[in-house]
Amino acid sequence: MRVIEHPFSDLLRSPKQVTGEVEKGDVVLRRRDEADLRLTLAERDKERSAALAALGRTLRNLAVHEPESMREALADAFPWMEFLPKKDRALFAAEFADVLAGAVELDTYAPLSQLLREWRDTAEVHADPKLATRLRRPLKAAGGSVSRPGRRVRAKTA
User: Fold this and answer.
1) Considering the entire predicted model, what is its pTM?
2) 49 with 67: CB under 8 angstroms?
3) Model confidence pLDDT, tens digit, residues 27-68
4) Can you list the pairs that 121-125 forms with residues at least 24 positions away whose Cβ atoms lie under 8 Å?
5) Which residue blocks in 1-147 are alpha helix, DSSP H?
6) How much is the mean pLDDT over the chain?
7) Angle, to 10 degrees, between the axis of helix 86-106 and the axis of helix 110-127?
8) CA 149 to CA 66: how far, in whole Å?
9) Secondary structure class of 154 (helix, strand, coil)
10) How far is it, in rounded angstroms, from Cα 153 to Cα 141?
């Protein structure tokens, strides 16, 4: 699909021209010092959401029924997975499928972006042995111990 870009001021000066271009493709309005805006047809957005929902369900089912195939597909898509330990690759694949399915259901993709950023950062640490060694050293700090990320800790009830 074609994406047409305009400064936000074009919308203010020529709203019919800018909104008329939405028939040809999405229109991105560039704003100074603010996040850009995207104009799209409601039907196009509905179709996009339906497609993402189908994709999310498909990948979730692949992760459940063919976990090795899912890991291989993700490794092709995200080459940095090579640096993750094998058990972390499996954990990433499962988390990716779960978070994708949840993000599609809620129509919010920030959690998926965060998951990808965090796993990529983890791979970067494993790729640099010196950095990994420095991060494994104990810290001198006050307070109790902290559980490893990824493990769920249940609070004790009295």
Assistant:
1) 0.69
2) no
3) 999 999 999 999 999 999 999 989 988 988 898 899 889 989
4) 122/84, 122/88, 123/80, 123/81, 123/82, 123/83, 123/84, 124/80, 124/83
5) 8-13, 15-20, 42-65, 67-77, 86-106, 110-127, 129-136
6) 89
7) 170
8) 26
9) coil
10) 21
